[in-house]
Design a protein that fits this description.
This protein has 335 residues and is of the alpha/beta class. The protein has 2 domains: 134 residues, Rossmann fold (3-Layer(aba) Sandwich); 181 residues, Rossmann fold. The strands form 2 sheets. The protein has a 7-stranded parallel beta sheet, sandwiched between helices. A 5-stranded parallel beta sheet has the order 2-1-3-4-5, with helices on both faces. β10, α12 and β11 form a beta-alpha-beta unit. The longest helix has 20 residues. The chain starts with 6 loop residues before the first strand and ends in a 17-residue tail after the last helix.
Length: 335
Amino acid sequence: MVSRPVAAFALGPRAHRQAFPEPLLDRLASIVTIDPGHVITDFGTPAALDRLATVEILVSGWGCPRIDRDVLVAAPRLRAVMHAAGTVKGHIDPVVYDRGVVVSSAAAANALPVAEFTIATMVLGAKRVFSRSRRYAADASSIARPVPAATGLSTSTVGVIGASRIGRLVLERLRGLDVTVLLADPYVSSPEAAGLGAELVDLDTLCARSDIVSVHAPALSQTRGLIDDRRLSLMRDGVLLINTARGSLIDTGALVRHCATGRMSAVLDVTEPEPLPAGHPLFDLENVYVTPHLAGAEGREVSRLGEFAVSEVERFVRGVPLLGQVEQQHLPFIA
């Protein structure tokens, strides 16, 4: 009888409960040898060190301690880390790759609810739902106000910044809608953009032509402040700006100034800083809708992440290619 690989959970208790319901724990236990109820939250405890001595697969997630050189010393048999969440930047030290450990992320599963949230905000934002609902609450007679002609998603031009994993899901969903789609991404060719249902343009052109601008680029040193005062000035009156990527991509001060004039609106699931301090002017603008970084998997959606991670464990044990493998060279370019 072939022995099963030894695995252990390394994540926060809440993430463990949400991502791994009992049927999924049973499935995982049929693939590897694991204590389904035990989670490592600190790699330095005697109990954790005892487990690390034999572990071959770590199933990580939100709340996972950083996996660094000391952890690798304590886990000489470690061969894979399967992350039941999105980005691995916060908990994977580059030395993990130097040891030849395989890393997988459930970012693809986490991307789906973000894309769904983005499309929903496009529909609602283009209908000016957020500002009109506030106005209606303050003054019921506002229901009789004329609606601007440029209201609604139909026949609008949508600009997508970044053909990232989430950006591509958004592009895929836009193809079924009556919109013109622009894409700005320096790593995508015109034929590839056409295959995604979009016209490839430079970022300035996208800002100038779009009725809706949706941000899906990674947070890198070169993308910090990507949407600055100059590019906000290029955007047409009435534009809706949506950010579900990272707050650092938009110059917050410049955005406040442009939105305060009423010439543009914004839906922000991420901000810079995050969280925004109490009393921040973005909270007071009726044409700005701020949500607390909730577009990714939450509640019932979190089990998708656990399902992805368990499927990756199964693929790894069977020796077939992983769907969420994160190579070391990808780290600088992912969220």
